[in-house]
Amino acid sequence: MARSKSSKRWLDEHVNDPYVKRAQQDGYRSRASYKLIELINKDNLLKSGMLVVDLGSAPGGWSQVVAPLVGDRGRVIASDILPMDSIADVEFIQGDFTEQSVFDQIMQTLGGSQADLVISDMAPNISGVDAADQAASMYLVELALDMAQQVLKPGGNFVAKVFHGEGYDDYVKAVRSHFDKVVIRKPEASRARSREVYLVAKGFRS
């Protein structure tokens, strides 16, 4: 079957992408690791001993970055619908966290502890229909915010990938209403033509 122009363009970009090559050299599972590394450095998000919840974690690029930084005294609890190969010092829960059983499993794993940081790099399966894809992506980040509100400790932080489009402005407003400071970042590892940005929210207040 012949590839579409868009999928061929993506494949060419992917093969020639310096961050893809760098990820292979550095042993990261995803080029997205470099997006999180930049955010951590710019916004001082992580330190040893923190408890971090990683939503939409597969294939594990973000958990790979976080686990060594929180160290032996910290914890990383990761969750995704997709399977994820194990990572040292990361507790992985497979399933849809919008389902009660999976949510309960995450809460049980937290064991009454509250998270210092919730991170979400979730994105929907792309259908190619822009309006539907945007609605699906906004639904996911709304769920991530809801989860953050339930598990973050007062003063905790939240990072989420958001796509510009319908619902974006309202979402940013909603996040601002729960956090002291919200900034929008476009990491260097984000492709220039992508509508994705990363919302970094600090100082959670319920």
UniProtKB/TrEMBL annotation:
- Which positions in this protein are listed as binding S-adenosyl-L-methionine? G60, W62, D80, D96, D121
Domain Ribosomal RNA methyltransferase FtsJ, residue spans: 28-204
Q: Which UniProt keywords apply?
A: Cytoplasm, Methyltransferase, rRNA processing, S-adenosyl-L-methionine, Transferase
One MF annotation (Gene Ontology) recorded for this entry: rRNA (uridine-2'-O-)-methyltransferase activity
**What reaction is this protein's catalytic activity?**
uridine(2552) in 23S rRNA + S-adenosyl-L-methionine = 2'-O-methyluridine(2552) in 23S rRNA + S-adenosyl-L-homocysteine + H(+)
UniProt KW Nucleotide-binding keyword: no
Asked whether the UniProt record includes Cytoplasm among its keywords, one would answer: yes
> Which domain of life does this protein belong to?
Bacteria
Where are the active-site residues found? K161
Cellular component GO terms held in the UniProt record? cytoplasm
User: Where can this protein be found?
Assistant: Cytoplasm
Instruction: Relate the protein's function as given in its record.
Output: Specifically methylates the uridine in position 2552 of 23S rRNA at the 2'-O position of the ribose in the fully assembled 50S ribosomal subunit.
Q: Which family does it belong to?
A: Belongs to the class I-like SAM-binding methyltransferase superfamily. RNA methyltransferase RlmE family.
Q: Which HAMAP family match?
A: RNA_methyltr_E
Q: What name is this protein filed under?
A: Ribosomal RNA large subunit methyltransferase E
Q: Which organism is it from?
A: Pseudohongiella spirulinae
Q: What is the lineage of its organism?
A: Bacteria, Pseudomonadati, Pseudomonadota, Gammaproteobacteria, Pseudomonadales
